[in-house]
Write a structure and sequence with these properties.
Chain lengths: 84, 84
């Protein structure tokens, strides 16, 4: 694999996995007062469109990164609704 | 512009602008207790690598989306340090 594509893969892994500690924190503390619902709603809309883009271009990396981040965004939205 | 590229452009605009209401909320409320510092640190590292990827591939869309989101992530890190 060319170095630049490896960099892209690491970049995708980091920007996706970044949301895991946020989900964990909200889940553990049962508190989401400082979390912006608008952020996660707009983010989810964008991630769905990125997934459509990835499906069209048959890019497994784009599809995987965006569906996983999308799933984490949905969990954050649920936690935000649950712990107002 | 092909429809699918327009979808990609809208996707990039949404996933970048999503962070604006979060920055606004943290700035306005001066409270970031529920915000994960780890999330924004890992996200920033990923966004820097995405920018490197974009520079290599001469993709202005990737460079712009990731530098703007990166700037917003830096503001969130500063607000998180300021309002513990």
């Amino acid at each position: 694999m060319p170095t630049i594509e490896l960099i892209g893969l690491i970049a995708a892994t980091l920007t996706t996995s970044a949301f895991v500690p946020q989900v964990y924190k909200a889940f553990k503390n049962k508190s989401t007062a400082d979390i912006s619902m608008t952020m996660y709603a707009v983010l989810l809309a964008g991630l769905i469109l990125w997934t459509v883009y990835g499906i069209y271009h048959k890019s497994l990396a784009i599809i995987l990164a965006n569906t996983i981040t999308g799933a984490l965004a949905i969990v954050m939205i649920i936690l935000k609704i649950k712990h107002k």
